[in-house]
């Protein structure tokens, strides 16, 4: 943390959004913990307004998250600090777009997104090189896209394991 301390840095609401309202401050695996609100938010949005609400929610989180991640990264003087988890929230939400949300689908979506976020297959890793908040957000959205495709394949090919009903 910067010398002025955590309280002063996180006094800006943009910074709280970027760190998932404090989840990114987890002492271990902040990205993993940061993915969990994405599951919950996606589930709530689908329950309230269907897949269109989820799609709009993904756009809103991605736009606000890019802005807030840029602000916090600049404040901390780091390219992609681990405390920023709004990108994991958006990527996890994208993983669930267009699929039924059963318990097994949510579990599979979580595992798949975390795997693609860690592995960062091309062009996800290259997207990290985009400037500021764009680079922070883009690689996780790519991971969410890959995870969504893998999840759809799992639902189609392994319906007895990943049940969409």
Task: Write down the domain tally.
Answer: 1
What oligomeric state do the depicted chains represent? Answer: single chain
Question: Spans with pLDDT under 50 lasting ≥5 residues?
Answer: none
Element-by-element helix/strand order: HHHHHHH
H/I helix tally: 7
Tell me, briefly, the overall form: globular
Proportion of strand residues: under 5%
In total, the number of strands is 0
Helical percentage: 55-70%
The largest sheet, given as strand count, sense and whether it forms a barrel, is:
none
SS content category: mainly alpha
Q: Could you report the average pLDDT, rounded to the nearest whole number?
A: 91
Distance between the ends: 46 Å
Gyration radius over CA: 16 Å
Task: Explain what you see.
The protein is mainly alpha-helical and about 160 residues long. It has one domain. Helix content is about 70%, strand content about 0%. It has seven helices and no strands. It has helices at about 5-10, 15-20, 30-75, 85-95, 105-120, 125, 130-155. The longest helix is centred in the N-terminal third of the chain and has 47 residues, at about 30-75. The model has no long low-confidence stretch (mean pLDDT about 90).
